[in-house]
UniProtKB/TrEMBL annotation, chain A:
Name assigned to this protein: Uncharacterized protein
From TrEMBL, chain B:
Domain Glucose-methanol-choline oxidoreductase C-terminal per the UniProt entry, residue ranges: 462-540
Molecular function GO terms recorded: FAD binding; oxidoreductase activity, acting on CH-OH group of donors
Top-level division of the source organism's lineage: Bacteria
Record carries keyword Oxidoreductase: yes
Family statement drawn from the similarity comment of this UniProt entry: Belongs to the GMC oxidoreductase family.
Domain (Glucose-methanol-choline oxidoreductase N-terminal): residue spans on this chain: 210-322
Taxonomic lineage from the root: Bacteria, Pseudomonadati, Pseudomonadota, Alphaproteobacteria, Hyphomicrobiales
Protein name (record): Choline dehydrogenase-like flavoprotein
Length: 135, 557
């Protein structure tokens, strides 16, 4: 099995289709995976070990044994799978995530807690600190 | 002249020159000392093992943010694996110390939650019969706190009944997003204290700082240059005032003469060469781990147990604020990837001692957004939000999609910071086998979360669950004590009047070496339960002012 297939089988087990959400290989190609690995060269050796043996025993058993025997490889495979998936523009659109966006605001706008009385109740409950002068 | 030109000029070390003051560390404490000393006409050189931040490296605005930041901007130096940091031996600690090396120090990655200690924090022995009182009071420190706030550009709302009256903050509080409103709703339902968050993030343009645009990546470096760190708030002014800053300069030893007075430091420069910086006064601002490490590495044969350590307390009494987090998901959208990440709301409801709870002292809570989909999935990374589970399948497959659908954009996190009481068994020592990139011994942390902290966290988690459920939470996840949470490093060169029971006096001067000072949180006798940077900078300013006023009486080699 090629590296590409070995990984995609594992990734599709980790991130299958569910409800409106697509499975990993429906939205991410192996080129996306390689791009992610370029951002995290520290994961490359663990990733290579994780896909080295084809999942002859099935993806779940393979992941199970990686999780028990080679935590670093398991972490590399899962980190790359999940991060690549949620970087996909299609997935972001489906979950309503624009990324860490820029949201300018008016710093002088009156905040709701000042007009709806909620902060007033905190103040009305009175002093909380223990004064210390004289100690 | 631009900051770049000034910084470059400062970076050139001058052979054999003796300066008035050399400072180790360019984080919040070292930056305050450098600025005020330079303004007073005192010659000052700061040696910093890290580099100037490059804002283009902060990935917050890019799609790969969650992938990259969990390595490059991880708060644990052992995970970052950057040669500018020193590694830490964490094999004997319940909590990993977190820090960052660079101009701006660990605050490069801080949440910018800006809190003063409370009056009782300075009087724990008198009020609660534990640990020690500080040699000065809340009232003594307040003017310095307010001055630092103006230098830093803090935003917040005055009038909190959990504090004595104080003046207005320099900037209005940041807008409270849906996350903060939902957090406050739970507290309101319980009739408990909450207040709009105060943050070291100006809500308007301030000097070199841009207005915050709520990108929500403060904990991994602010790509907007909006979060206040001293590379922007203090260093441009300090360089103009004549301070010099040498980066990639790792101090390996403080040197002393026959009379036991400090004569300067030896550091390893960017090319791996040893250099000497002579100085009349040495100030350590290397944080609660780096400062005792350097003292333990110094002293030579005259003081084999480390410099300034006749009390035996250097490195001891380490406090790291055991921390728990509660993630709560709600049916309604809360846009919970939007910032500021610092704190939208805080609560001091359980700050003061109530012995009926079964522990002394208390906690501070802060309400934060939960972040992007990878983080809230709990499937990978530091698992800050999710308790360890034996089965990986719980986080993957259909569960992954369901967890993300329930939490992403719909959840908030309450962080619970507990006061840590000092114990001599919790300490920083030198590792016997781990070394940094210059071959110097790494610090080793020996630390156990104590019984008081365990009870405190349990009580607070139970209350927090009541609050989030009162506001309609449909799911809650608790993590306690969070291992990756040693962001506050306190207590390892304790201040006091008695040289047998303390390392420095109330002005930060070492009892054993009167021209060697410590001006970071190592000197704090107790830890409070609030985030410490406001107090660290205020104490550094108080000490620096005193040093300037007393300069003619300073004993020097
Ligand atoms: C992830 C994270 C989140 C945080 N959030 C908050 C928050 O919301 N609010 C808050 O109040 N606090 C927060 N903190 C804590 C805050 O960052 C620290 O309290 C503050 O930075 C301490 O300032 P300092 O100058 O004493 O030490 P540091 O900022 O740690 O600076 C010490 C400097 O000394 C340098 N140094 C150390 N040893 C040597 C040596 N031998 N030679 C040369 N240089 C050396 C280091 O490289 C470093 O730059 C957070 C910390 C972290 C890590
Ligand atoms: S929320 Fe504000 S301070 Fe934080 S990273 Fe975004 S712009 Fe910077």
């Amino acid at each position: 099995m090629s590296d590409e297939n070995a990984f995609l089988v594992l990734a599709d087990f980790l991130i299958p289709a569910h409800g409106k959400m697509p499975k990993f290989s429906d939205v991410c190609g192996y080129a996306d995976v390689e791009k992610s690995l370029d951002f995290r060269i520290d994961l490359k050796s663990g990733f290579a070990r994780g896909i080295a043996v084809g999942p002859a025993t099935g993806a779940e058993a393979r992941l199970e044994s990686l999780n028990k025997e080679d935590g670093e490889a398991f972490s590399a495979i899962t980190t790359i799978a999940i991060a690549t998936y949620y970087m996909s523009p299609r997935v972001r659109e489906l979950i309503g995530y624009p990324g860490q966006e820029n949201v300018p605001y008016d710093s002088k706008a009156t905040q709701i807690y000042l007009t709806n009385g909620s902060l007033g109740q905190v103040v009305a409950r009175g002093r909380k600190y223990r004064p210390t002068p004289g100690l | 002249m631009t900051v770049e030109v000034l910084a470059d000029r400062g970076a050139r070390a001058r052979r054999d020159e003796e300066v008035d003051v050399v400072i180790v560390g360019a984080g919040p404490s070292g930056s305050v000392a450098a600025l005020h000393l330079a303004r007073a006409g005192i010659s000052v050189v700061v040696l910093e093992q890290g580099e100037w931040p490059d804002y283009a490296d902060y990935t917050g605005a890019r799609p790969e943010h969650e992938l990259v930041s969990t390595k490059l901007w991880h708060p644990n130096p052992n995970v970052r694996d950057n040669p500018n940091d020193y590694p830490v031996d964490t094999s004997t600690t319940d909590i990993n110390p977190l820090m960052f090396a660079g101009v701006g120090g660990s605050a490069t990655l801080y949440g910018a939650q800006w809190m003063h200690f409370l009056p009782s924090d300075f009087r724990v022995r008198s009020m609660d019969g534990v640990a020690e009182d500080w040699p000065f009071t809340y009232e003594d420190l307040l003017p310095y706190q307010l001055e630092i706030e103006r230098e830093v550009g803090v935003s917040g709302l005055a009038g909190d009944p959990a504090y004595p009256p104080r003046g207005a903050y320099p900037f209005p509080a940041l807008p409270m997003g849906s996350v903060g409103q939902r957090g406050a709703l739970g507290m309101e339902k319980m009739g408990w204290h909450w207040w709009p968050g105060s943050n070291a993030i100006p809500s308007e343009k301030f000097g070199e700082l841009n207005p915050c645009v709520r990108r929500g990546t403060c904990l991994t470096g602010c790509p907007e240059g909006a979060k206040s760190t001293t590379d922007r708030s203090h260093w441009p002014l300090a360089l103009k005032a004549g301070a010099r800053l040498v980066t990639r300069a790792r101090v390996k030893e403080i040197e002393t003469n026959e009379q036991g007075l400090a004569t300067g430091v030896v550091y390893v420069d960017a090319n791996g060469r040893d250099r000497r910086q002579r100085a009349k006064v040495v100030i350590l601002c290397a944080n609660g781990v780096g400062t005792p490490r350097l003292l333990l590495m110094s002293g030579g044969s005259r003081t084999p147990d480390g410099l300034a350590n006749s009390s035996g307390l250097v490195g001891k009494r380490l406090m790291m604020h055991p921390f728990a987090s509660v993630l709560a998901s709600y049916q309604d959208p809360l846009d919970s990837w939007r910032g500021p990440f610092g704190q939208q709301v805080y609560s001091l409801e359980f700050y003061e001692t109530d012995e009926s709870r079964g522990f002394v002292r208390g906690s501070k809570w802060n309400c934060m957004p939960s972040g992007g989909p990878v983080g809230v999935s709990g499937a990978t990374g530091s698992k800050v939000y999710v308790a360890e589970s034996g089965r990986f399948q719980d986080f993957w497959g259909a569960n992954l999609h369901e967890n993300v659908a329930r939490r992403f954009g719909h959840s908030l996190i309450w962080g619970i910071v507990g006061e840590d009481l000092p114990e001599e068994s919790n300490q920083v020592v030198l590792s016997k086998d781990l070394v940094d990139s210059d071959g110097l011994p790494a610090p080793q942390i020996i630390y156990k979360v104590n019984e008081n902290s365990n009870r405190l966290l349990k009580f607070n988690i139970d209350r927090c669950l009541e609050s989030v459920r009162a506001a309609g939470a449909i799911e809650t996840l608790v993590s306690t004590p969070v291992r990756e949470s040693g962001w506050h490093l306190i207590g390892t060169t304790v201040m006091g009047d008695d040289p047998k029971r303390s390392v420095v006096d109330q002005w930060g001067a070492c009892h054993d070496v009167p021209n060697l000072y410590v001006m970071d949180a190592s000197t704090f006798p107790t830890s409070g339960a609030t985030n410490p940077t406001a107090t660290i900078m205020a104490v550094a300013l108080r000490n620096t002012r005193r040093m300037i006023a007393e300069r003619r009486n300073q004993k020097v080699a």
